[in-house]
Specification:
Elements lengths: L6 H8 L5 H13 L1 H19 L9 H13 L6 H5 L7 H47 L33 H7 L2
Length: 181
């Protein structure tokens, strides 16, 4: 079984970082091992691609801009309303005025919607409370003696004409209509 050379050793051979004895040992192994020779060829091609690339010429102001940004990032940020408003200081007057008008309009519309919604909710609560009060007061009454629609006999005390004990065709007009079917 052939012991292969490590990638680190192949990389050092490609970059010529080994002494002459190690270089000879790896070269003799590469002559007899196709797998290590293929790996060495790939690494050599990659190293040549890196060496042949152009070094980009950086603009002279780049390092000063990087240093400035790093210094600004290291400074503590101001907090509060003034630091929030500082970006607007560099804007034209018409842009600041438009932003102010827009902010006032948004606040006014939001306040109006909030007040209308709140008053509608209060109205609903009051209406439901009144309905509950009416339901409770009607539930406490006796259905046989209480008739809010009484038209006759109220003064004489005849009672409810629709009560069970007074169901006759001449008093209850619905009874005769139901019997005709």
């Amino acid at each position: 079984m052939v012991k292969h050379i490590s990638e680190e050793e192949i990389s050092a051979w490609v970059d010529r970082q080994l002494d002459s004895g190690e270089m000879g040992r790896i070269e003799s192994h590469l002559r007899g091992c196709g797998e290590c020779r293929a790996a060495a060829g790939e690494m050599a091609a990659m190293a040549e691609a890196f060496r042949s690339t152009e070094i980009a010429e950086l603009p002279p102001y780049l390092w000063s801009r990087i240093a400035k940004n790093l210094n600004e990032a290291a400074l503590p940020r101001r907090k509060g309303l003034r630091s929030w408003l500082l970006p607007a200081a560099g804007r034209p007057i018409w842009a600041r005025a438009a932003a102010t008008v827009l902010a006032v309009m948004v606040l006014a519309m939001g306040g109006t919607i909030f007040i209308e919604h709140r008053s509608a909710a209060d109205f609903e609560k009051r209406a439901l409370a009144e309905m509950q009060l009416a339901q409770n007061s009607l539930a406490a009454l006796d259905a046989e003696t209480y008739n809010p629609f009484r038209t006759t006999g109220a003064a004489s005390g005849e009672g409810n004409p629709f009560s069970r004990d007074q169901l006759s065709p001449d008093i209850n007009p619905f009874r005769s209509a139901a019997g005709d079917r």
